[in-house]
Amino acid sequence: MCIHERPKLLKNVAKCHFFPGRLEKRKYSSKEHKNVAKFMVRVMLQASMATTPTRKTRFSRRVPDHVTDELVNVLSGGETLEFNALFKLVYDNLKLKNAVSGGEEMLRLRSYEKLQGLVSRGLCAKVGKTYRGLEGLRAAHQATIAARTAAVAAR
C-alpha cells in the first residue's frame, strides 16, 4: 500500500459503520470512527505485508563450534561429572584458547544447550545431575565435523 493511499483509505473507513468484530448500523462518535479507521488501516497494512515475499532470515553458524569441541574433549576422559564441575573445566579450557565470548553466563547457557543436544543424540549419558560421555562420543563428533565441512565445501 502506497503512502499516498493511506489518508484516502483512512477517510473512507471512517465514513463506514463498521465496528471491529461485528457489522452494525448505528451512529458512532468521531472518536470511535477514528479508532475504527486506525484499526482497519492496521489490519489492511498487516494483510498487505503478509502477502509480500519475505527474505530468508535464518542464521547459520559456519564457524567451528568450540563449546561442543570442549564438551567432547572433557567428556571423552571417561569420568562422571556434575554440570557445574563440567562447565568449570570447559570454561577454563576455552579461556586458555581465548575462545570465550559473550560472557560466562551466556557461555553457561550455550554449553548446557549443547550438552542436552549430546544427551538427546545418545552420545552422553545423564544420570540424575551427572553426565558421562559414552563410547564413540569422539568418533561421532568427528563424523559430524566432517559432514559439516563437506556441506560447506559443496556450497
Describe the structure.
Helix 4 crosses helix 5 (104-120). This protein folds into 2 domains: 5-51, no CATH class; 66-154, Arc Repressor Mutant, subunit A (Orthogonal Bundle). It contains 6 helices and 5 strands. The longest helix is centred in the N-terminal third of the chain and has 22 residues, at 30-51. Strand 1 and strand 2 (22-23) form a beta hairpin. The protein is elongated. The protein has helices at residues 5-15, 30-51, 66-75, 83-96, 104-120, 137-154; strands at residues 18-19, 22-23, 81-82, 124-127, 130-133.
The biggest beta sheet reads: 3 strands, antiparallel
Radius of gyration: 28 Å
Stretches where pLDDT is under 50 for at least 5 consecutive residues are none
Shape: elongated
- Number of spatially distinct domains: 2
What's the helix and strand layout?
Blueprint: H1 5-15, E1 18-19, E2 22-23, H2 30-51, H3 66-75, E3 81-82, H4 83-96, H5 104-120, E4 124-127, E5 130-133, H6 137-154
Top keywords for this entry?
single chain; 155 residues; mainly alpha; Arc Repressor Mutant, subunit A; three-stranded antiparallel sheet; 59% helix
Provide a compact summary of the structure.
The chain is mainly α. The chain is elongated, with a radius of gyration of 28 Å.
